[in-house]
Design brief:
The protein has 65 residues and is an all-alpha fold. It contains 1 helix and no strands. The longest helix has 35 residues, at 27-61. The model has no long low-confidence stretch (mean pLDDT 88). The chain has one helix spanning 27-61. It starts with 26 loop residues before the first helix and ends with a helix.
Length: 65
């Protein structure tokens, strides 16, 4: 078997793309999308908070006196 014979893993289908036409989604799909996006916002906010904490700690450690 050659490396070229191995198929790449299938790509995950995006559940939503920014700017996507929402008129084709059902009420249930729109509600599910809202839940997904709220979860993503929470994840991004946590990442931001973690980075801000790290930055504050670094600034405190290297603060000139």
């Amino acid at each position: 078997m050659d490396i070229d014979d191995i198929a790449p893993p299938p790509k995950k289908k995006k559940s939503h793309e920014l700017g996507q036409d929402l008129s084709k989604l059902s009420v249930a799909e729109l509600q599910a999308l809202i839940g997904t996006l709220k979860g993503e916002v929470t994840r991004v906010e946590k990442a931001l908070s973690d980075k801000q904490s790290s930055l504050s700690a670094a600034e405190a450690a290297f603060k000139r006196r």
